[in-house]
Protein 1
Amino acid sequence: MRGHARLAAAVTVALLALLCMVGEASAQAAVRNGFWLEFGTGTGTVRNTCAGCANVTVAYGPTNHLRVGRTLTPRVLVGLELFAMQSSELVLGPGAAPVDAENGSLAPIVIWYVGDSGFFLKGGAGLASGTFTVQSTPGEPVTTERTGSGLTFGVGFDIALMRWFALTANLGTYVTAIGDVRVDDTVVDDVIATVYEAGIGFTFR
Amino acid sequence: MASPAAGQLPRPGATSTVTACEGKQTMVAVGQALAVNLVINRADAWLFDWDWARVNFESWSRNLELGWQWDETQFGINMFVHPYHGSLYVDAARANCLSYWEAIPVAFLGSWTWEFFGEKWRPSLNDFWMTGFGGVAMGEMLHRVSRAIIDEEATGGERITRELAALAVNPVGGLNRLVRGQWTGRGVNPVDRLPESYMFRAKAGGRTVREDGSPAGPTTSPTLLLDVAYGDIFETESEAPFDVINVLAQVSPDGGGLNILRAVGRLYGKDLSDRDSWQRHQVVISQRFDYVNNPVYHFGEQSLEVGLQSLWRVGPSGFRLRTRLAGDVVLLGAIDALDAGLGQRAIDYGPGLGVIAELALERAGTTYVSLYNRVRYLRSVSGAPANHNILFSGLDVTIPVTSQLGIGAYMSGDRRRSYYEDFPKDERSYLETRIYLSWTFARETAGSPR
């Protein structure tokens, strides 16, 4: 948890620094054509719910993403996004033991730059996965994996530092629906986790 | 009035170079999409007295706090009414000159706000998907159809009749035209108002549906089918999404009224052959909407399809062979659930994959014989882990009596196999037969090759 707090603080400071750099970097002309690649990191919160859940359970952790794609027009980019978040002490549902969780998604995405600034909207749909590890008593840790449907929406802002390189601030949400999950002897009905992420990306074009 | 569009050439036979819409108003479109939610919510609360529509700050707060869940009941509402609701958002966007692509975020914004703020129930993830994706498909089709109905050059009673008909098809677009005084002013029709060709076919007769081995026995009823082709893959240049649309609808008194609504809109097409060649081939990317709700089973999906379509001239008699081979990515599908898993559960939702093979023999707008096989794999992500394999097969034969009238018969055999992690395998077969009279109206609106 302490590590997460440090990471969150670092990401926040970095995002603020990015905003401060907007003015200076705006002189750089953003070039969007051909293939592009972005990788990044950040911090996130996962809000987990289920069909029988009276409350949402929350956990925090680091996030990572990788996006590759092609520029359709200077304002529209399409690509593939791989996203992952790790968290611990996540309670999936009533009666279930806390788990170490990895939420991930692989989805085709569309990025739409609105106007001439670096501001963009992002949306996509694809596959989602959840990997949950619980310390069984007694015995070795037990891991359960589930795949399902994923949705992602987000906004971001590019700060072009060079014609082929930009820093990208990202705010996004990732919905991962993975169905019933068995944790130890407890089955949690219709698990849907929603991850909210704030992160920084390094974009190459 | 719209002005000529720079760089746009008129189609053969077209009389103008005017485009349909100019002056994009994004915020007005967003405002109208939200207004659609407000009007529908208040109508449900005040006129129909639905408790779920009596939203308040408490329900909004709870929905935002708890977030998504699956709505695993009410197949017809989820798979048809929600997409229609979504079509209103798209038509708000299209009425304000946003493109098909620009209308997509508006549809999802409208869907998201409805799920969180338009209903007291917790927001439903499948409704969000179906309203968004289904709304885009249905909305674009209705937008195209209403635009074809409206004739800017018509006057008097014909003009008002056309505007009223367009209003019924596309209420948001029609109201925009009314408010802007476009119901009466005489103008120039947009260049792409009508497709190069279109076909309308109605079939009326009887049908029998039964589940193989079920003690319930067959269900027999009258039935009406409408088969509409807006444009043709090989006659309409690929210029914009949904410039070619095929729709099949079946209505029967039993089994929920609307039994089938199947629509395919071309998003992109790449010709692989010359227009004058005796064999034509085109790589086609399409958006697909499927809704099947009959007395013995339910199935629905939103999918993207990539495939090869071909047209072969067969001899000098005018017969043509049309083939289609395609693969599908099912963004979200739905099928009856069989009491597996936890909680109340009538429908399984999940993504999947599919393959389609179709063959048809046609002449002068009449399809004599058609044969299809469609395979679907759905993986349930709502509830208990399950894999569903579904095979749809059918044969349709029509014998022309006159140039427009014919008699025909149809037979299909659909089979599903469902594999559950904690439940025995389930296998079922469904058979449907139809006998009908058909009436076909086909027209080419501009010079198109035969």
Protein 2
Amino acid sequence: MSEAIDLFSQQAANRRRSQWVVVLFVLFFMWLGFGGDYIAYLYTRSATPNEYHHVFPWLGVLLTAVAVAMARSAWRNGPDRVIWASGAEELLVAQTDEERVLVNCVEEMAIAAGLPRPRIYLVPDDDPNAFATGHDERDARIAVTRGMLTTCNRDELQAVIGHELGHIKNHDVSLMTLLAGLIGAIMIVSDGTSRMLRTGNGRSFGGGGGGKKRGDAGPLAAILLAVWVISWLLAPLLTRLLATGVSRGREYLADSMSAQFTRNPLALASALEKIGAASAPTKSIKQSCAHLCIEDPLGRSVNSREGRLADFGTHPPLSMRVARLRAMGYQEMKARGTFVPAAS
Amino acid sequence: MLIVVVLLMVAVVGWGIMSYNGIIALKNQVANAWHQIDVQLKRRHDLIPNLVGSMQHERDTLERVITARNHAIAAQSGGVAATAAAEGQLGGALRGLLAVVEAYPDLKANTNVSRLQEELSSTENKIGFARQLYNDTATQYNTKQAQFPTSLVAGVAGASRADLWEIEDAGERLNPKVDLTLAPPAR
């Protein structure tokens, strides 16, 4: 009973987080837009009557509209785009024995989780990794790399899929997919602006008249301008920090849900160790989708280290996750009376 | 004063409706979980005849599986306990068969047999997971209808205790999972 309430509160919390992320995203773009307008207004205020005066906040209106459109499209087409970006192909009819085992494992875990069977995708990549995406359990998708099928045995594959189904059951997937879409959008915008800033700074302030009047605008305008330019440049970093902060805690929860489905936490522990040991980065998974995966596809060293630096990784340290799963496994074995100490 | 009484009544009625709906939702979940087991058991029964064509070895082990299957099909209308007992027998016989297959290299090399083996062991896993889900949901349902104060509404919602799917087979209790990586049993 407590489990059902807990699940419901997890889903509600994720919905709330999604709403906050969208609100923050739009507010940030409103600052970029209306802030820029205000700065331009300050700089052109004392211009002579026949020069350009920035009065109508067209930049703010435009950027707000763009932000709303981007958030809407990230929400609607997010899952399709995440799948498309990884180059995954849907597995409709299993051809090889490996694919058949994958389909069976997904079906088994869907039964254990009490969810409809998600659509299955295969990523043509030799590095073992997996991710889930979708809005809710009805249009959920699970993608697994081919490397995962060759690296893991059946029990381990089952545990990995249990982890992904845990994300689906919590509704983590919709939040994570939304974040992936917004990170992608911000990266495009910030690439464009840094190029614009490199090619000519003054041109963005109506007709070049602003340049020589800059002294009249006062220190407030100068500070605002500095903050404004820095926000443009830091936008991608900030959004990625947001994504990491949101995703890290979810991993432990999905790990324990996998253990609850398979009743075999040791299988996930050994799968995670194998995935960690295959240190090659998963090339087909882009940076904007890193937080969706079962383990950081970029193989960044911050994730494997404990301590303060670990706060910046998309995933908790692998050793911590393995240790927690091992502890669960030994407890279960002791309860069943099959615990055999490793000595001898 | 009147307002307080009205508010209290609204609160009590609201709580009653919520508890009632909660119990009904759980009842449906239990029925759905049971249906999942049913689907997988049907699949298990349908897969077994395929064995007859592809297995030339160990006819008596196969015979035991087929007898257990027929018993299980006959027991289907007998409720949770009877079904569980018959299916437990069938599960034990199937596990014996799957272990035997491991001992014949030529049988394992046959693609048809290895595919059938994967399908059978996957079906066994699915039955296990469906049973796990059913037992978890049924326990939730039983706890909720027995606990005070939801127990007051349980009668109105027509709730009754759901039977758990107990493990009958002694062998199954020891080894709950099909493990194909095990070495062939010493004979």
